Amino acid sequence: MAAAMLLAGANAAEAHIVAARLGDFYMGASHPFTDLADVLLWTATGMLAGTLGASKGRWLIPVFPLGLLVGLPLGHVFGAASTQFADAAMMLAIGMLLAAAAQVPTLLLCAIAFAVAVIRGAANGADLLPETDRVLFAAGLACAGYGVITLTMALTVLFKQARSDGPASWRAIAVRALGGWIAAIGLMMASLVLAS
Predict the structure, then answer these.
(1) Residue 8: inside a domain
(2) Structural domain that includes position 76
(3) Cβ(92)–Cβ(186) below 8 Å
(4) CA–CA separation, 72 and 120 (whole Å)
(5) Which residue has the higher pLDDT, 19 or 83?
(6) Is residue 71 domain-resident?
(7) What CATH number has the domain bearing residue 137?
(8) CA dihedral sign, ordered 78, 118, 38, 183
(9) Does a structural domain hold residue 25?
(10) H/E/C letters for each residue in the chain?
(11) Is a pLDDT exceeding 90 seen at residue 127?
């Protein structure tokens, strides 16, 4: 009888924060992690900044989230499909810079990071639904970009500095080899885009 009374008097549960419209913030923060291009490009950009050192890389902390915010409204102009070749080209370029252990000037590093962020911001913006709160989505996307760039850059700096034996250390070689793999993935993606 007690169970019947509880079931009869039960109201609809409002247990999810989506009802408070904060779901769009979390959707913006988690959406990039569902796309391989976001994961690879964001990680590669953070690694490139980390290999150049903290003094150059710290400029990306404000530049990358700003680029995501600039690119987000461009999603409906370009669409996700039109950014595929740009993704592949940026992946190839960043991978080659990592593989060559190139010493990129700070201004060029910021321009590369800003371009990656605008491209990926546009790709994420193309997936927005009309009912999505764009301000909350943008805030989540910018926070995710800030976190990924900062953590990847810091981990790369620590990885390369820990007991480094100079340019021929296994750590520097590992970063360069990973850059080669990133460039290869970019080359494959570009050839797939051009073939279709």
Answers:
(1) no
(2) 14-195
(3) yes
(4) 8
(5) 83
(6) yes
(7) 1.20.1250
(8) positive
(9) yes
(10) CHHHHHHHCCCCCCCCHHHHCCHHHHHHHHHHHHCHHHHHHHHHHHHHHHHHCHHHHCCHHHHHHHHHHHHHHHHHHHHHHHCHHHHHHHHHHHHHHHHCCCCCCHHHHHHHHHHHHHHHHHHHHCCCCCCCCHHHHHHHHHHHHHHHHHHHHHHHHHHHHCCCCCCCCHHHHHHHHHHHHHHHHHHHHHHHHHHC
(11) no
Tell me if 142 is assigned to some domain: yes
**Could you report the per-residue pLDDT of 44-87, keeping only the tens digit for each?**
999 999 999 888 889 999 999 999 999 998 887 776 566 788 89
Tokens representing 54? 């903290």
Residue keyed to tokens 């370029």: 93
Q: How many domains does the chain have?
A: 1
Amino acid (1-letter code) at residue 81:
A
- pLDDT tier for residue 155 given thresholds of 50, 70 and 90: very high
Residue type, 26: Y
- Give the tokens for residue 7: 């079931």
Residue identified by tokens 């990973």 is 178
